[in-house]
Design brief:
With 269 residues, this protein is mostly helical. Helix 3 packs antiparallel against helix 8, helix 4 crosses helix 8 and helix 6 packs antiparallel against helix 7. The protein is globular, with a radius of gyration of 18 Å.
Length: 269
C-alpha cells in the first residue's frame, strides 16, 4: 500500500474539506460575495457540497487504506485537486484572494495537489496491484458503469470546452448563468468523476467499485440537498432542462441504495 505520509495527507484533506465545505454549504448567502471568484449563493453551496463530499470520500478512504479497495477513490481525489488547481491557474487573473474563505479554498487545493504528487510517487515506487481475487460485477453493473462514464464524461468534456452561450450554459440545466470560470470548474468536477471509474472497464473488482460508490455517495446526497434548498431557482415549465440536473443525481443515488443493501459497501477485498 502507499506510505503512511500519503495516508496522513488524505486524513488532512478530510479535515480541510470538512471546514471549507461546512462554511460554504451552510453560509452561502454570506460567503458568495467574498469567494475566490464571482459566484452566486447556489453555486457557493454547490461548491461546498463538493468539498463536504470530498471530505467523506477522503476520510473513509484513508480509514480503509487498502490499495485494491480504494484506488479509484484516490484517483478521483487526486485528479480533482490537480484539475481544479489547473482551472484556478488558467483563470488566475479572475482570482480574488482577499477573504480567508478564498485562501482556504486555494490552500485546500494546494494540499490536495501535494497529496496527489506524493501518492503518485508512492505508486511508482511500490506499484501495488489494484486487482483482487474477490467477486466481480455483473454484465448489468458493467452496462451501468459504461453509461455513467459516457454521460458524466460528456458533461465534463462539454463544461471544460464550450463557451458561454452554448446550449445548456445560460440556465438551461443549471438554473443560473455561469461565468466561464465557474463553468470550467463544474466541468472539471464532472470530468474527474467519470475518469476515476474508467479503470473498472478492465478491472471488475466488485468490492473496489462498491467502496468507490459509498465514498462518492456524499457528493450525490449533499449536492442534491443543495439543489432542493434552491429549488425556487428552477423553472421547469420554461426551462425543462433543469429537471436533468435532479435526474442525473437521483438516477445514480437511488439505485445505489439498493446496491448497498444487496452487496454491501466493499468493506473487504
Amino acid at each position: 500500500m502507499l506510505s503512511s505520509f500519503s495516508r496522513l495527507l488524505t486524513y488532512l484533506l478530510a479535515i480541510l474539506y470538512t471546514v471549507l465545505g461546512a462554511l460554504l454549504y451552510f453560509f452561502p448567502e454570506t460567503l458568495s460575495s467574498v469567494f475566490a471568484w464571482k459566484v452566486t449563493p447556489f453555486m457557493t453551496m454547490t461548491i461546498g457540497g463538493w468539498a463536504l463530499g470530498n471530505a467523506w470520500l477522503a476520510w473513509i478512504t484513508a480509514r480503509r487504506w487498502q490499495w485494491n479497495l480504494v484506488f479509484s477513490a484516490l484517483l478521483y481525489l487526486w485528479m480533482f485537486g490537480l484539475g481544479e488547481l489547473l482551472v484556478l491557474f488558467n483563470f488566475r487573473d479572475k482570482l480574488i484572494l482577499v477573504h480567508p474563505i478564498a485562501w482556504l479554498y486555494l490552500i485546500t487545493l494546494l494540499i490536495n495537489a501535494l497529496a496527489a504528487i506524493v501518492g503518485i510517487m508512492d505508486w511508482l515506487r511500490v506499484r501495488p496491484s489494484a486487482m483482487a481475487g474477490g467477486p466481480t460485477f455483473s454484465p448489468l453493473q458493467n452496462t451501468a458503469l459504461i453509461a455513467f462514464i459516457l454521460f458524466v464524461g460528456f458533461l465534463g468534456l462539454y463544461g471544460s470546452n464550450v463557451q458561454i452561450g452554448a446550449p445548456g450554459t445560460n440556465g438551461g440545466i443549471f438554473p443560473e448563468v455561469m461565468s466561464l470560470f465557474t463553468l470550467r470548474s463544474f466541468g472539471m468536477f464532472y470530468l474527474t468523476l467519470a475518469l476515476a471509474v474508467v479503470p473498472y472497464l478492465w478491472n471488475k473488482n466488485l468490492n473496489a467499485i462498491l467502496h468507490h460508490s459509498i465514498a462518492s455517495y456524499g457528493l450525490i446526497a449533499i449536492i442534491t440537498v443543495a439543489a432542493l434548498v434552491y429549488l425556487r431557482l428552477f423553472d421547469f415549465a420554461s426551462r425543462p432542462g433543469g429537471a436533468l440536473y435532479f435526474i442525473a443525481y437521483l438516477a445514480v443515488g437511488i439505485p445505489l441504495l439498493f446496491v448497498f443493501r444487496r452487496y454491501g459497501t466493499g468493506t473487504s477485498s
